[in-house]
Amino acid sequence: MADDKEREGPDITVAEFHKKIKDAFEVFDHEANNTVDVEEEEPTGYIRFEKFLPVMTEVLLERRYRPIPEDILLRAFEVLDPSKRGFLLKEELIKYMTEEGEPFSQEEMEEMLSAAIDPESNSVHYKDYIAMMVIDES
Questions:
Q1: Rounded distance, CA 79 to CA 17, Å?
Q2: pLDDT tens-digit series, residues 25-41
Q3: Rg of the chain's alpha carbons, rounded to an integer?
Q4: Per residue in 86-131, pLDDT tens?
């Protein structure tokens, strides 16, 4: 595998990929034990971070899945925020994500909220949330 100094494009190192992957993994690691429940995918019912990291790093480095560009994600949030406040209240997000389009399940909603909601304001500052979700490929 590539070492941490190797660059992927002009802006992101493998170490930065690893940090983004770890941050995303931790959102779903509810018991903080370096595992995530994946009953449908693994016979054990969970996947360990040590197994997940190299596979996901390879997927990202090979660009197997094209991420949604940051500007498109931002426009999607702005559609839900017509007054351009820069945030959605928790209740608004829940309403949109459970009543519109293909609704999120309760579990999916809880997982999203655990990563997205600012506990002090009880809202999603979507530019910050988008920055956490995307990997700059420029």
A1: 29
A2: 887 887 889 988 877 66
A3: 17
A4: 999 999 999 998 988 888 888 888 888 888 899 899 999 999 888 8
Q: Cβ distance 115 to 132 under 8 Å?
A: yes
Q: What is d(CA 8, CA 138) in angstroms, rounded to the nearest whole number?
A: 9
Residues 6+ apart with CB under 8 A from 104: 97, 98, 112
Residue in this structure with the two tokens 């909601």, named with its chain if needed: 117
Is 15 within 8 Å of 4 (Cβ atoms)? yes
Question: Which amino acid, 138?
Answer: S
Contact between 80 and 92 (Cβ < 8 Å): yes
Q: Say whether pTM exceeds 0.70.
A: no
Q: What is the 3-state secondary structure (H, E, C) of the chain?
A: CCCCCCEECCCEEHHHHHHHHHHHHHHHCCCCCCEEECCCCCCCCEEEHHHHHHHHHHHHHCCCCCCCCHHHHHHHHHHHCCCCCCEEEHHHHHHHHHHCCCCCCHHHHHHHHHHHCECCCCEEEHHHHHHHHCCCCC
Amino acid at 30: H
Show the tokens assigned to 123. Answer: 């809202």
